[in-house]
Fold:
Amino acid sequence: MFKKYVQRKLEKLTIKYFKKHHPKLIVVVGSVGKTTTKNAIATVLHPKFRIQAERGNLNSELSVPLAILGIEFPPEELLRSIRVWRRIFKAMRRRIRDQQGVDVIIQELATDAPGQIPHYGTYLRPDMAIVTAVAPEHMENFPGGIEQVAKEELSVASYSDLTIINRDDVDERFAPYAETTNITNYGLFGGEYRFDTSDGTPLDGYTGKFFGPEFAEGVETTVHLVGDHNLKAAAVAGLVGAKFGMTAAEIAEGLAEIVPTPGRMNILRGVRDSIIIDDTYNSSPDAAVEALRTLYLIDTDQRIAILGSMNELGNFSVDAHRQVGEMCDPTYLDWVITIGDDAAHYLAPAAKRKGNNVQSFSDPISAGAFANKVLKSGGVILAKGSQNGVYAEEAIKILLAHVEDQQRLVRQDSEWLDKKNAWLSSLENIGQDTD
Structure:
């Protein structure tokens, strides 16, 4: 009851905010890629517009109103404090009264159960809604399978003025779930707006052209993002820039300024002149496969994949982990190192059947230590995994060339570090493989 009271209060104050102030609202939904997409759009729009876009991923029922108004979300241990929420309500009222310096708000909306995306429509009226992907997510709460996920994500169209869909990663059979006629799309392999690469590598960035109805000849630029799935974020950022009336030169400059978000295919320097691709924020089958494909494109004498378990997949978990294991190609990979039970039980055997060298661990520190042991000079390491019970970012710490780069990893604040240390202390077999 307390959470429901707080949520209703937050939503009413958010409605009051939009009644008094009238910034444009862009929301980003989808199974993967929300934060990267949000940050890419903010980067392109920022030189010309005053932007509100929380850099992390405050995208839940309680955190969305605070992120929209630019108010800090309280630590988990204070979420039941009446005094804390009173202070927050007071800050929101002050924010409503004050003169605003915001032209555009860019906000993620997340779901981990049916009905959450539709509920945002009870108090938000976005000018634009971007749907990044429909893929397996939180499947333990979606018994209807991928069809139910599609209905959930695409329900955003029913209350948004314009819906923008990733044509590459939202199957056409789900189109009827987008209840709107005002719709456009983007992608790399087609779409009304697209980004075509002409040259480049995952580590050096890609030169190419952004195309759309406003720019039939294309907008030439270089994008410094790793992986096709991140280039799609650049494509939709260009699309939003075009819809906001930005010139070709402004869009080209904005696209060139986009940088990876921590924990999302971010490049770090490792020991022995190695390269680390840090994709440890979270993991899902589609995202893990895309990350592996990107790793295979990098020219190097050694590739290592550190792959953690993928959480909250319910009955889909076994097949999902096997799918990723089957994508591990010994032609390209020297080692597959897994973290967590599901990765050990299902991903690792599938990778072994493909002929890979595989080592499994229950914790990220042991996985990182083993990777450090087998890492050769100039090697490339991909690290990817879910959050709770995996924490693959902790494996990276052992492999970094510069200790100060630990601050570029995800979940390094004191609250997360305490949580991780408590979990690690509960394990009995740190340092042992699970074979």
Q: What stands out?
A: The chain has a mean pLDDT of 94. The chain has 14 helices and 15 strands. The radius of gyration is 22 Å.
